[in-house]
Protein: Hydroxyethylthiazole kinase
Amino acid sequence: MQPDLLSPAHTAHVASQLATRSPLIHCLTNQVVQSFTANVLLAVGASPAMVVDHEEALAFSAIADALLINIGTLTREQALAMRAAIDGANRAGKPWTLDPVAVGPLAFRSRFAREILAQKPAAIRGNASEILALAGNGAGGRGVDATQGAQEAVSAARELAQQTGAIVAVTGEVDYVTDGDRTLTITGGDPLMTRVVGTGCALSAVVAAACALPGSRLENVAAACGVFALAGKRAAAQSQGPGSFPSLFLDALYQLHTEGA
Ligand SMILES: Nc1ncnc2c1ncn2[C@@H]1O[C@H](COP(=O)(O)OP(=O)(O)O)[C@@H](O)[C@H]1O
Ligand SMILES: Cc1ncsc1CCOP(=O)(O)O
Ligand SMILES: [Mg+2]
Structure:
């Protein structure tokens, strides 16, 4: 089936809903991107909380509106907290999102990612090499970076969505978001987004937030990618390089709901 283009009106609607509803997002994420992820969630109008101890994580994921699990700097201790958080979220009926950072060549995180897939993520967001590896079709990328284009991972994304029941977003120059049947395509963004750390991780946090909104989860996750594509393009148009880009990107995310898309 041919991918559909995401409607700009739905991106604007989701940008506004995120700010109006301000979902509380429980983030268990990597050590590199904690602060940027929290700032991105605040810029879109959501509310971040990094509650990381395993006892507190179990309790807090039931209180939060959605959970993010990002395995970028996974440790044994963090894996315990992640299992507890997923358990708490599932028992409370709260959606959780997986960012399978650098899955493939590294055994511990790859085993862990496959294990938690059985716990029914609402969404999975990764780059092409991560989605291919998670679907069992590739060896993974170069560390946290993709070595394949997103277009090459569309079939794997569909298979992964069918196997897990999750909405799968595979990102890159073009993003593809699928429920295993219908696939939406998002264009925009800018290569500068790959020259600063944490844009993929922060997008996964906004995907988690989008999963807490009412309506079509497929369209809401695609709109989260649409929000990034639009803000990334606007920020890059004013930016001289990776130093100024993160600030301009946060401003652009904020302006999407304060000034309308
Ligand atoms: N070449 C590109 N052109 C435009 N946008 C891009 C490009 N590469 C990545 N992006 C955007 O950057 C964000 C992060 O995606 P990606 O780089 O695939 O994730 P990761 O950082 O996990 O590898 C997404 O919003 C994606 O659309
Ligand atoms: C550099 C790095 N190392 C482990 S996690 C991480 C951040 C990856 O961020 P992103 O996937 O958003 O580029
Ligand atoms: Mg990533």
Notes: Residues 127, 145-146, 171-173, 175, 189-191, 193-194, 199-200, 203, 228-229, 232 surround adenosine-5'-diphosphate (ligand 1) (CB under 6 Å). The first strand starts at residue 4 and ends at 5. The chain has one domain: 4-258.
